[in-house]
Structure formats: C-alpha cells, structure tokens
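# step 3/5: fold
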Amino acid sequence: MATAAEPRRPEGPRRRIPGAYTLAFWRDPIRSLETLAREYGDVVHWTFGGTDAYLLKHPDHIRRVLVADHRAFMKGRALQVTKRVLGDGLLTSEGDFHDVHRRVIQPLFHPDRIREYAGAMVAAAARARDRRRERETIDVQREMARVTLAIVGETLFSTDLEPEADEIGEALTVSLDGLNLFMLPHTDPLERLPLPSIRRFHAARRRLDDTIARLLDERRTSGVERADLVSVLLAAEREEGWSRAELRDEAMTILLAGHETTASALTWTWWLLARHPEVEAKLHEELDRVLAGRLPAADDLPRLGYADMVVSESMRLFPPAWLLGRRVLVDYDLDGYGIARGSIVILSPYVTHRDPRFYPDPLAFDPDRWTPAARRSRPRYAYFPFGGGPRVCIGEAFARTEVILVLATLAQAWRFRPPAEYEPRLHPRVTLRPKGGMPMKLELRRARTASRG
C-alpha cells in the first residue's frame, strides 16, 4: 500500500477564499458532497480546515476502505466529535479495544436472540397503533423515536423507557445538534464557553448520562441477572475489569445509536409510502395476504418480502448513517492517486446510493430494485447503509427486523398523510433526520382488531 512513485492528485474545487469550502460543507454537507461528486467524479480532493480530504464514490473504492485495506484507516473527525456524547463505545472505539468489546456484546445480536426480541418489537408498535386517533396529526419522527426507544429499552435493558421517551428524545436532539458545532476544525475551545447553546448541550448530555447511570446502578444493586446488555456489561465489569466509564459508553452507544437510526429509517419510509400510493397499495396487499389481520411475528419475516424491499429502497434514498469518515494511517495508493497519511477519506451512502450507474432513475422510489436478480446485478458496495467489513454495524440484523415488524404492525391499521405542499428538508447530523420533524395526519385503514391470534 505504498504511495506510487509519481502519485496523481484527484481533481477538486480550487480554494479561492481560505476556509470557504469548509464553511459551505458545514452549512450544507449533503449538497456539498453531491456537487463534488457530480462535478469531479469518483475521487475528489479538497481541503477541509487545512487537511486534505477525499470523497470516494465508487463501490470498488468503498470496499477497499471498509474491507480489503481497513487497517490502513481509522474513524474520522465526525465520530471523534461524537465521543463527546457516546464516549469510547463500539461506534467510536478502535483497534483491540473495539474488537474485545465487540466480542463481548456480539451474542446479544445473534439471530436466535433477535427472534426472541420480535415480540417486544411488535408489542411496542401495537401500543403506538392503539394510542392514536383518526385524523390526528403527529410528528412521525418523534413517534417513531418513542417506539424504537421502547423497543431498545425492553429488549436490551429490560426496562420501560417509554415514560421518559420525550425527555430522552429532546436530550438526544439537543446533543446531536450541539455536536454539529464541533465538526468544524479548531472549535474544541468553544466547549468551555458559557454560551446558551453550549449550556444546553451540557445539560442534555447530563440528562442522558443520568439515565444510563440509573439503569446500571439499579441492576448492580439488585443483583438480578437477565439475558440483556446490562447484565453482559456488569459481568464484564466483574470478570474482565471493565471500568464504569467503559460500561457507560457501551450502554450509551447501544441506547442512543440503536434507536435513533431505526427511528429515522421508519420516518423516511412513511414519507415515501405517502408519496407513492402504488407502492403503499402493494405493501398493504402483502400484509393482508400474509398476516390476515393478526400481528406479525418473527416467523412471518421470510414471507414479508415486499416489506423488506420497501425498507431497503427507503434506506437507499435516505440512509440514516449518511456519511462515514476515515483518517488515513499510512501513505496510501488508490488506483494511482496518492493519499497522504493524516488525510481524511469520506464515504457517503447518500451519494453512492443515488449514482445512476448503479440505480437508473436514482431519485425514484422503486422497491423492485431489490429483487434477487437486481441485487446481483450491482457491485456489493453500491449499497452500504450499515457500513461494511469488520466494523459493520453490530445491530444491522436487529435494525432490519425491527423496522420491518414495526412497519408491518402500523401499516395494517394506519396510513400516514403529510400536509398539502409539505416537503421535508434534510437535517444531516450524526443521522439523517427531517428538519423540524415530520408532521403527518393519520388515516384509519381498518379497525384495529389485529391480535396475536
């Protein structure tokens, strides 16, 4: 992986005003990345805060960074900044530390365990289904966050977090928005200033910390053993010598990253279904045929093929993890381009997922892109909503199961309809949310008689 003797530098925007492109990227990162990819191709160079940065768009290059040469890269600035909230959990940690922690936590996401979680996933969705009224307008982002927080609370923490959903959701929103300030280079000193936004950020982080500390302390005091994340972490504390900070960071990562990504995926799915009634009708036909009015279960997943395709296409257009950053650890040759050690490499599922070479008419919402034959026709890393390689998201199977089961439960009873002329604006932070939430009105599809029978 040594740099070529005469490395080429990729094309990219010329720097006319120092810092201008860095500020433009901070203000509207998705538009900036789309412009770079459209104007300069598969490998783009620019300067971000004085550091060389490279956008890689082609699936072959993405595979090299995430899989073939993954040891030549480490997590980039965005996830380093995220440590202010998540600490050194699975999402942000590196090397042997990450590998050991992943091995300890991995059994919780074994396929057999995920099947056991299915009942709790459906029950949380059914509660959301039953507490709403026809023609009620709700913020779908907030409602999906409430559902997914309840699910992660029950399945991985063995506790009911639903009464705290609004407070935890607000603290998470403030924390994610606050992190955006520190994405710019040389902004670390701002964290010590008594600005209102900084005070709100610290207060939100304390609220999240208090929740995690309470969950761990209550279980530590009770001594009750359960087949969940809390017991796994406390066993690691006793047997492996994990510190309380390590326990806190892993619990925070699973609690927040776990429910936030699935809430965003569901939110965008409801929006797309509302805009494409022909897809919605086909989904309803499958749900009626497979479930016949009852609640879904884990055994139904293989027969909910169209629902799975809908979810895949939704996460193609609006991947919750819309950007992955890596810092280059060695001088690296990428097809003759020399990328110096210390540079930043950016991979964007949002950009690659909309490449017309792999997805004709890329802005169209077309679940039929996900037939087995269509999948085989594309390069593997033309689609990577959960990352890839050794650092692929540990909760990928959990998340896909959850989104399909929640979708199936709610879509049997409700249609979600946005206000006339409403168009969501993208709000790319750690995840891809709609800016200001997503208001939608509920239309009753049929009486809520579904049960486990």
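# step 4/5: annotate
The first helix runs from residue 20 to 27.
# step 5/5: archive (pending)
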